[in-house]
Amino acid sequence: MLEHLLTWMTQLADSVSLPVFVIVGGIVEEIVAPIPSPLVNALAGSIAKAQKLGVPFLLWLNLLSAVSKTAGTWIFYVVGDKLEDAVVPRFGKYIGVTHNDLEHFGEHFKGTSKDDIILLILRAIPAMPSTPISLICGILKINMRTFLVSTCAGFYLRNLFFMAIGYSGFAAADALIEGFGTIESVLTIVMVLTGVAFVTWLYWMRGRVHPGTWLRKLYK
User: Is 36 helix (H, G, I), strand (E, B) or coil?
Assistant: First the structure.
């Protein structure tokens, strides 16, 4: 399934204009998490080089890619938001965390410059998985302006890195891109396991100390 999708995206790059490719590819890349994050932008950079397109066009292309990928992350933000609304009121009692606990914690992310910078850095890291971050932001109901602006700015830097690799055309580009994809997959697994371990810890602590206590006091 994934191989067919990757083949389709490669064929798409050859059949449509680069702006259309980075817009469609960026959204698909975010929605289908297993797709390596360097794929669209590195391929776009390589094609731009072959077509002898200049750096200004590359920067414009990168902006389109960042905006489209941000739109893709917004979907998972909404999923995380709705998931928290549906799951925590019903099952939060088993781990001692309430809807109010999470809302109180999320209120500390009010869109300050510190919040903007932290999320921007996370989004700009080349191998950082995108979907888990979007879900967490939705669960905690991070300020929407912070989420959208910092995500777009971070993706612009991240995408520019991958696009520059493709545009450079140096021999080790494919191996480097594949390496980033592998690291991203490993980090995704680590983040999922960490989340499972965290929920397990909350369940284990529920009869001793209210697990939500630290959550309420963390930024107090």
Answer: coil
